[in-house]
Amino acid sequence: MIADTHGLYDPAVERHFSGLDEILHAGDIGDPQVIRRLRQLAPVMAVSGNVDGFETSGYASRQVIRRGGVTIGLCHILYEKGKMANEVQAWLDREQPDVCVFGHSHKPTLDRYGRMVLFNPGSAGPKRFTLPRGIGILTIRRGKVTPKLISLPDRIDAGDRLEPSVVRRTKGALR
Known about the structure:
The protein is α/β, with parallel strands linked by helices. It has 4 helices and 11 strands; from the N terminus they run H-E-H-E-E-E-E-E-H-E-E-E-E-E-H.
């Protein structure tokens, strides 16, 4: 799981994501190069975030997928101003996924909503405020999920960043 890259690809994710069945990106991709580089590690399922231009990014704002007998909801914004957004709560109540993977807050989160696991891997993009950078792994075995938060270093080498001119293109199609 990865979210809130904001156009920044951190090679530190490679040792954690190499060999995975799939990478889920919970929005605020920021640049199509991020997805291209992640696809070199594993297939990627992504949703659009607010910096991606929900309507124009080429990615849905929400997805429901089934993997290993587990239903996963994938969205960018789950909470607004500290509480679950009404339209997202209605979506979760209707879809009833086992897990909801989300982003937006940049805050690594493992929580519950009824029987549902709520999982925000944190931000893998530029460090913001005092929040740690991070990603997550969701292991599915025999229909059971085990979420794991993984910390990333606060800084990455400048040579590993995408070109600034590319990072600024945050609106429009990302595919």
